[in-house]
Predict the structure.
Amino acid sequence: MSDLRIALIPEGTTDYEVINAALRAILGNRPFVLTAFYPEKTQPEFGAGWGGVLKWCNQAAESGYTSLESYPVLSGFDLVIIHADADVASKRYGNCGPAIEELAIRRAWGALPCAVHCPPPLPTVECLERTITGWLGGAIPGKQTVFCIPSKSTGTWLAAACFPSTHRILRDGECDLGLEDRLSTLKRDEKIKKTAAQYRAKASRVTNNWDSVKSLCSSAQRFEAKFLSIIPAK
């Protein structure tokens, strides 16, 4: 059996590490190759973070292709994952500059902010998924595209893998907008800085403790279910 080929459009490198680790848990022994299309690297003018993902999606929309899977850069992949943290639902288009704010009005993109009361976290996740679908315009996601929207960030998934459920950092869990930032302020033996190297060093815990992550994070459960509806584990 050939390796499963998965394309990922993430906000950044730390997100790649967490999502890659999650996929190792979901797919078990099934081999796969995860290729990241970082917007700030493949298209430097896009910048990093959710704004880079937005601009990448808009470029796909402007390509004229009728499905995301037919977009040439994604040809040859078995699955496409588009990532954005759920905290984006609390942002404004103006955060990406006046040109994007104007484009959002002209293209009638879904409203930002679109966050709703949390808990529960999933209504905000679902709202942001609809908004991102709007960014893609006519290049609609097909049967081989899945959204990965951790609430409120991939840092929450990492924390759920690294600490017991009773740890204070997980008190508000998926509804805490500041959780990821506070990981770097914990005591010395618990501190996790938001760098690719530190997230990579902890990534095996996401794989090994994926059941714990799912028990604490409904967004992780949702991602796994959607992923497996497209690519069943073997």
